[in-house]
Write a structure and sequence with these properties.
The protein is of the alpha/beta class. It has five helices and five strands. It has a five-stranded parallel beta sheet with strand order 2-1-3-4-5. The two termini are about 20 Å apart.
């Protein structure tokens, strides 16, 4: 019996944003799903499955800014159950453009306050680093694909899922 392939346990989470990086990630999976599923275990990914686990995650990819107390609590839980957290895209990294309301003048803030209450939004929109420790980031709106691949390669090698000479783009299992 052969030894089972070690996998990196990942989660993909999305908060306040346009979800363009989630779309890019999904498109990347269209091309690489079968190869990547041999080295990645999707513990939590609403875009891929309905039964998700929010525990024992090696690498959490978090897209979007935090704009509600509910999302803040979930982000804290993600940080608590993840060895590493990667901010994905501009909203997660800088809080913008989702956080433009942070810079509104008092008149505009007063005008939007009923909507913030109605939709249970906080007055301030947060970039991830304002609330939790971030271990890495992938910039862009949408994320820069090459930077994402470099980042995930780094952690696959760190966790010894793939060799130092391998890459997630060209990873093949010997049985392919």
């Amino acid at each position: 019996m052969s030894e089972q392939q070690k996998k990196l346990k990942i989660g993909w989470f999305s908060f306040t944003c346009c979800e363009d990086s989630t779309i890019m990630f999904t498109e990347m999976l269209n091309d690489h799903f079968f190869a990547w599923s041999k080295i990645l275990e999707f513990k939590h990914a609403n875009i891929l499955k309905s039964k998700n686990e929010l525990s024992d995650i090696d690498l959490a990819f978090v897209e979007g800014a935090i704009a509600s107390e509910r999302d803040k609590k979930k982000l804290l839980k993600i940080r608590n159950v993840s060895k590493y957290v990667i901010a994905i895209g501009s909203c997660a990294v800088t809080g913008l453009p989702s956080g433009h309301r942070n810079n509104f003048d008092e008149k505009m803030k007063e005008e939007i306050s009923p909507y913030l209450l109605q939709f249970h939004q906080t007055e301030h929109v947060y970039a991830l680093h304002e609330l939790i420790k971030i271990d890495d980031k992938v910039a862009g709106c949408p994320m820069i694909e090459a930077q994402f691949v470099q980042t995930i390669d780094k952690y696959l090698k760190m966790f010894k899922v793939i060799s130092e000479d391998d890459s997630i783009i060209n990873h093949k299992n010997a049985s392919d």
